[in-house]
Design a protein that fits this description.
Blueprint: H1 3-14, E1 18-24, H2 33-42, E2 48-51, H3 62-73, H4 78-89, E3 97-101, H5 103-109, H6 111-121, E4 125-128, H7 137-145, E5 149-154, H8 160-169, E6 174-177, H9 190-201, E7 208-211, H10 217-224, E8 229-232, H11 234-242, H12 250-269
Parallel strand pairs: 1-2, 1-8, 2-3, 3-4, 4-5, 5-6, 6-7, 7-8
Helix pairs in contact: 2-4, 2-12, 3-11, 4-6, 6-7, 10-12
Length: 270
């Protein structure tokens, strides 16, 4: 059983919804990332989604795009991100880590080398935005051979046939995009999210995480009532951006923000 599957199994047994924060590796400084990862776990994060910097982040809004630009300016590459996960694993062997990014850096490294290095570093899975299941057979096969989960996105416009197709190849969990558009855009409609999550769960058995549009404790609590995981990205990355000039404050302040989300999520999950 993968770390991701084990974590969701543990959470289900406790009646708890997962909190999954997203941060861009290397933003605002490479040396901040691992300390931030540990701080987020201490504040109640169940799974960490770690963004791999890429020059054309098509699914991301301006907040995460700027984070990516800062990380790239710091020279952070996929190799560096894997080294960060390896460092994180020295103190934390349990918390699942999912890489989020785009195909190009993986193609440059090579599917086999990426899968081997990711497994060795302690990565548990990846969400690769621009690899539809119809075109990802070689990558999916290689990653799964190394025990890595493949997380896929589902959208409000996803048809039943599309959901079923994703269910055939996805593992770990699926990520439901709660609003149309890029990260950080739009306002979340909890009733609409509940209907879509129920429809997804009627077709596939994997846990369903919900992201995009979760900005505060209130929206996190609303999602926690219907989803298996609450995924928070731009609200965290925006706070990191505001603290870029004082990076030493970032772990503590992000931990405080997540602790508030954790309390709200747990209250809604009871």
């Amino acid at each position: 059983m993968s770390r991701i599957a084990k974590r969701f199994e543990q959470l289900k047994a406790r009646g708890r919804t997962a909190l999954v924060p997203f941060v861009t590796a290397g933003d605002p400084k490479p040396e901040t990332t691992v300390a931030l990862m540990h701080a987020m776990v201490a504040a109640g994060a169940d799974i960490i989604e770690l963004g791999v910097p890429f020059s054309d982040p098509m699914a991301d809004g301006p907040v995460i795009q700027r984070a990516t630009e800062r990380a790239l300016a710091n020279g952070v590459s996929l190799t560096h991100v894997l080294a960060m996960v390896r460092d994180f694993r020295e103190r934390d062997p349990e918390t699942p880590v999912v890489l989020m990014g785009y195909l190009n850096p993986i193609e440059v490294m090579g599917y086999a080398d990426f899968s081997e290095q990711a497994q060795a570093a302690g990565v548990d899975g990846a969400l690769i935005v621009d690899v539809p299941p119809e075109e990802g057979h070689e990558l999916v096969t290689t990653m799964k051979a190394h025990g890595l989960d493949l997380v896929y996105l589902l959208a409000p416009t996803s048809t039943e046939a599309r959901i079923a197709r994703i269910g055939e190849v996805a593992s770990g969990f699926v990520y439901y995009v709660s609003v149309k558009g890029v990260t950080g855009a739009g306002n979340l409609d909890a009733t609409d999210v509940a209907e879509h999550v129920a429809a997804i769960k009627s077709i596939i058995s994997l846990p369903v995480g919900v992201g995009f549009g979760i900005k505060d404790a209130e929206t996190a609590a609303r999602v926690a009532g219907v989803a298996d995981a609450v995924i928070v990205g731009s609200a965290i990355v925006g706070r990191i951006e505001s603290l870029a000039a004082t990076p030493e404050r970032i772990p503590g302040e992000i931990a405080d923000f997540l602790a508030g989300l954790r309390t709200a999520i747990d209250a809604a999950s009871v």
